[in-house]
Amino acid sequence: MTLPGGADDRAQGSGGEPRAGAHEIADAVERLANLWSTAAQEAAVRLSPHQLRALRALETAPEVNLTGLAERLDIGLPTASRLCDRLEAAGMLERSLHPHNRREVQLSLTGHGRMVLNDVARRRAEALAAVLAAMAPAERSALVRGMRALLSVPSADAPWPQKAP
Q1: 123 near 40, Cβ under 8 Å?
Q2: Which SS3 state, helix, strand or coil, does residue 130 take?
């Protein structure tokens, strides 16, 4: 996401002007997103980004119902239902009756679904490790410190959960 002015205009902003740093980080995030996507597509089972997000959501919230999954993914119930149909047909998701509320259906990952998630995570980690290996040790350390700082910034509209310091 290179914006008008080009990378040369932004190179000086690393420590001073937040806007200049934001442009540099946006470029890096775009590159990382491409790396992430490519690694996922090289997995033994190819999933759409929505399918992968659904499996990740089920991994973090076991036995959620369809409404809960739709809310987590910020999609409508019909879309979530079709998504679950495809994942169930592929053997990655299982639907079962809730033990205490027979009108509610729980969604859970199957062993195959967990295997696919593990394969994608492994491939992503390997791709990221290859990029990090090309960096100088001091640059890697600075990147890790910067990422920790980014995650620790409290924000009312942050799209990630806040961790205690």
Answers
A1: yes
A2: helix
Structural domain includes residue 104: yes
Please report the pLDDT score of residue 133 as a whole number: 95
Three-state DSSP state, 139:
helix
**158: confidence class by pLDDT, cuts 50, 70, 90:** low
Count structural domains, the chain.
Answer: 1
85: which 2 tokens? 């149909």
Tell me the one-letter amino acid at 144.
V
The CA distance from 79 to 70, in Å, is 8
Closest CA to 56 of 69, 38, 71: 69
Percentage of the chain lying above the pLDDT 90 cut: 51
Which residue segment(s) compose the domain that 30 sits in?
17-141
Token code pair at residue 92: 């990655």
- Residues 6 or more apart in contact with residue 39 via CB below 8 angstroms: 120, 123, 124, 126, 127
Q: Tell which phi-psi region holds residue 6, choosing left (phi > 0), alpha (psi between -120 and 50) or beta.
A: left
Phi, psi of 96 (to 5 degrees): -145, 155
Q: Which amino acid is at 103?
A: R
